[in-house]
Amino acid sequence: MFSLAFVTSNKRLLLFFVLNLFISLGSMSKPSIDTLIVLVTCPKFDYDGDYPVIISLKDYPSVTRSIVYSDNIELPSQLDDLDGDGINDELCFFVNVKKKQKYSFQVILEKGGEPKRYSPHTYAELLLKNPKVKEKNKQDLFIQQIVVGKDLDDSFHLLHHHGVAFENELIALRIYFDKRQTLDLYGKKRKGLEIKDTQFYPNKQQLLDGYGDDILWAGNALGLGALRGWVECKEQLLDDVEYRGQRIVCQGPIRTIVEVTDKGWLWKKGENRINLKQRFTLYAGCRDVIFEAWLNPSNDSIRFFTGLQHLLNGKEYSNHEGLRGNWGKSCNPTDSIMAHAQTLGMGIFVPDEYLCQEMPCDSLNDAFIIAPQNGYLRYYLTYSSDKESYGFHQAQSWFSYLKRWKELLAHPIRVDVICKNP
Questions:
Q1: From what superkingdom does this record's organism come (predicted)?
Q2: Can you give the pTM of this predicted structure?
Q3: Domains in the chain, ordered, with CATH?
């Protein structure tokens, strides 16, 4: 009797242990989920194509997977770790909106599992030059980021295509890895991602097949919206820095982000050095780049110089309230690649809070003097190549686009986030 009771008791203990084990394993395998309702309200403007929605994940740490639904239809989305600490900071996805309409989206955030994979519509690459590879479009030393010290005399030729390159299916750019930090431009004939194939230098066969190529000879000019210092009424290149860096932050179905850093920049003799971080964001399906910069420590007395490179035989436009554009040609007769003149248009919009002065057009740049607010700067850049089958081909239509572009930037959609979890 005692023996039977003892066995029965142990069976109960074993059953209790097994049940708890299954419960524990079930809770471990099931990811923690947050459900959000995202309400989007469109103002009085119709937007061309899709509009990006960005959701901060500050209150939802450790999210590794997201799914977005619109009327039970799954939409591509992208999770991005902006500061490189291994934790996703933002979720972004596209919405197609019409003026004065409201939309609702369901967002599932999971703390576990691999991120969903969608077709890429942006691309970025950073490459060291490989001396063993002679072809300019076959380089293979891919890196995610690079930092060099002030003792390196020539950072410009250290990297293939002279710096980080990034693109969507409409446009492609590269940023010079030197004191100029110029945005150089690539013109496409057809929509599509090309930089992985051409690496900014298409060969003869690729050109015959319809690939694009470099369309801007920048030299020491601003190119498209490069950021320079402005001291004692003179442009200052970012030459005196302790460390210079470039980094690919993200790329995917929604956007690509790249960063340029200048640590220990002596912006003016006799002043303390500062750290400057510049971020360039390019969304899929958009022909504009969002430029942001942060100063650490914050110093709002610093003035900066930016704008557009002056184009040959060109036309200029300004609304004298932060919007400038031009349309013309770029070439360099002494450069084998840029000897043939390329026709293009560029545009820049600086919001009023950062705008100090519009400079008169000269033979080199159409520029602004700008200033940070609370250690932060923001402006917008855009361009179009005449060779595009889908773009602009004359100054008048390009300037009309710039006016509408500025109005859309001034009237963003409204986004409200509601958490459904208790």
A1: Bacteria
A2: 0.91
A3: 33-113 (2.60.40.1180), 122-391 (2.70.98)
